[in-house]
UniProtKB/TrEMBL annotation:
One of its GO terms (biological process) is phosphorelay signal transduction system. This is OmpR/PhoB-type domain-containing protein. CDD domains: BTAD (cd15831). The keyword Mitochondrion does not apply. It comes from Amycolatopsis rifamycinica. PROSITE patterns: OMPR_PHOB. One of its GO terms (molecular function) is DNA binding.
Length: 631
């Protein structure tokens, strides 16, 4: 059998001996036939491939001569056949390096689809070993120049797929060594940059990963006048919000003792009370098989669940399982999740129906002590088949809503960080020196961030990105961007995202109430004031307020009052004007003002100041506003 190569120099060999293929033009004809192996190629196609519009006189005869010479040097077993009007080269895929490359790529993708990344990575290594240099070395012609570019694209794609599997398998050293040279050759290749950022995140170096994003964004804008693509922007957002799943290798082949919990945040701060409470629920006397964490997005529900799961690993010797149920965009199918869980604990074959999988899952857990983390669950229906059914195993569920149809399940409502903890978090990410230089400004900045972990991380990222700016300047810029944005910056969109998601869960009357309650310049609201603001009976106003508390967009305060976190109020006020319009906002303020002036039960200095602020919002002159208030 003759063996051919095109992924490097164009060569042919028989029994280990090289065949002299003659001139570059002859090699080009052979390369063309090899790339189109087992397909007929007409004389005109060969002429166009070699010369396009500049074909010399007698080009067809010249091609026939090249083929005659190739057949002579390839010998009696020459694979080049004559067909009507042209030629065809018959060759087994294994006899051509490009054929072996394609077979290995197909094998890798099949292994990836069946959840075997180890085999997929090995197949991709075999594919890339087919290359010995730049493709089609020694070939000439416009068509082959284009083919050379296409082959290089295929090679790069294979590298990206291989590195993706190696990163998923946590083979970071091998991946990082190759990735550096590939990025140097192709600095604008976004998938390579994404892998570079993932490796840095996995190694606990998020600041360097963010720097890589800043560099590629700059290069893309300078070279192409474009911004990074959606995948790279999404990874950047995950880094900014310190997504703990970035520290986790992808699920690998099934194992008897799975350990799927993602790496915990290296800068996990605070939550001592909540951690102790959750630990007690899952391990204490009369422990619950299921415990839930709920709260507004961005409060760190996933981070807390992962932190506690790692701390409890020794209590569950048969392993830990993790499922990102992605309620925010495309909810995960419990049928698919159950299949993964069963394979992970070494149970098979996996039944087809959901009910059969659920029964096998509970039967399997009856003999095991496993901890399951179900992150970002949508509702009871999505998770009921995934929960342990017997004592010994346990589950932590995180969700933006408290699932009342899970009877007996205790829920921890996660609110803002304690002020001291948010100071420590900001200092750990952005550096203690900058906080010590402006301690009062740091406290104001964190108050403006509502001590929400997500927004603290975003503020810290701005500090890191602008090392020469003062804390005061950062605080002023963030205040402008979040309250009166001219253009919404990418990191501010990240801060807004949990609030926008919360909006989608509110029915129309509640959405109106959420937005209008944020319009007045007052620190807290009573049910009577909200009844006037919304023009509703007091009973319905109270019901709306309680529903907004359940949705985590409003906080209940002392003596029956309610208030917003500053970030949530700024967002809701912007949305009120955008969605309901200035006329509706002004009408609501006038109703509230009439209510306050008619209520003489609490005319203290704060009442006076807030009522003046509301009249200012309506737009009355100072003299008119003063006349509205008692002397």
């Amino acid at each position: 059998m003759i063996h051919f190569t095109v992924l490097g120099a164009i060569t042919a060999s028989r029994a280990g001996e090289d065949v002299d293929l003659g001139s570059p033009q002859q090699r080009s004809v052979l390369a063309l036939l090899l790339l189109r192996a087992d397909r007929a190629t007409s004389l005109d196609q060969i002429v166009d491939a070699l010369w396009e519009a500049e074909a010399p006189p007698g080009a067809r005869g010249t091609v026939r001569t090249y083929v005659y010479r190739l057949r002579r040097v390839l010998g009696t077993d020459s694979p080049i056949e004559s067909v009507a009007g042209g030629y065809r080269l018959r060759a087994a895929p294994e006899s051509v390096d490009f054929g072996r490359f394609k077979l290995a790529i197909a094998g890798a993708r099949a292994a990836g689809k069946r959840g075997d990344p180890g085999t997929a990575a090995q197949k991709l290594r075999e594919a890339l070993e087919c290359w010995t240099g730049p493709a089609l070395m020694g070939a000439r012609g416009p068509y082959l120049e284009r083919e050379r570019e296409e082959l290089e694209r295929l090679r790069l794609t294979a590298w990206e797929e291989r590195l993706t599997h190696e990163v998923g398998l946590d083979e970071l050293d091998a991946a990082e060594e190759v990735l550096g040279s590939l990025v140097a050759e192709h600095p604008l290749r976004e998938r390579l940059r994404e892998l570079q950022m993932l490796i840095l995140a996995r190694r606990g170096r998020p600041g360097e990963a963010l720097a890589v994003f800043a560099e590629v964004r700059r290069l893309l804008r300078e070279e192409l006048g474009a911004d990074p693509g959606e995948r790279l922007r999404h990874l950047h957002q995950r880094l900014l919000r310190a997504d703990p799943a970035l520290g986790a290798p992808a699920a690998t082949a099934a194992a008897a003792v799975p350990a799927q919990i993602p790496a915990g945040q290296p800068l996990f701060t605070g939550r001592a009370r909540e951690s102790a409470e959750l630990t007690g629920l899952l391990t204490g006397a009369g422990r619950a098989a299921v415990a839930g964490i709920t709260g507004l997005g961005g409060m760190g529900k996933t981070a807390l669940a992962i932190h506690v799961a790692h701390a409890l690993a020794a209590k569950f010797p048969d392993g830990s399982l993790f499922a990102d149920l992605r309620a925010a965009d495309a909810p995960a199918d419990p049928h698919e999740v159950l299949g993964r869980f069963l394979r992970a604990i070494g149970v098979g074959p996996v039944p087809e129906s959901l009910d059969e999988r659920s029964a096998l899952w509970r039967t399997s857990l009856a003999r095991r002590r496993v901890l399951v983390v179900l992150d970002d669950a949508r509702d009871h229906e999505q998770i009921r088949h995934l929960l342990p059914g017997t004592p010994g195993s346990a589950a932590i569920v995180t969700s933006v809503t408290r699932m009342i149809d899970l009877p007996g399940v205790p829920w921890i409502r996660l609110g803002p960080l304690l002020p001291g903890d948010s100071v420590r978090l900001l200092g750990a990410v952005a550096g203690e020196d900058r906080l010590r230089a402006e301690p009062e400004t740091a406290r104001r900045l964190l108050d403006a961030c509502s001590h929400q972990p997500l927004s603290v991380h975003v503020a810290a990222a701005r500090l890191l990105a602008r090392p020469h700016w003062t804390l005061t300047r950062i605080a002023e810029q963030l205040d402008d961007d979040l309250r009166q944005p001219v253009v919404m910056h990418e990191d501010c969109k990240i801060v807004d995202a949990p609030f926008r998601r919360a909006e989608t869960l509110l029915a129309r009357p509640l959405l109106d109430a959420f937005h209008l309650c944020a319009v007045p310049d007052c620190s807290s609201l009573t049910p009577a004031a909200v009844a006037a603001l919304l023009d509703l009976p007091p009973v319905r106003a109270t019901a709306n307020l309680e529903s907004l508390v359940d949705a985590h967009v409003l906080e209940s305060g002392p003596e029956g009052t309610y208030h917003f976190l500053p970030l949530v109020k700024a967002f809701a006020r912007r949305r009120a004007r955008d969605r309901l319009g200035e006329v509706a906002c002004q009408a609501a303020l006038r109703r509230l003002l009439r209510h306050r002036l008619a209520d003489d039960s609490d005319w203290d200095e704060r009442w006076r100041a807030e009522t003046l602020a509301i009249t200012a919002q309506i737009g009355d002159h100072a003299e008119a506003r003063q006349s509205l208030l008692p002397s």
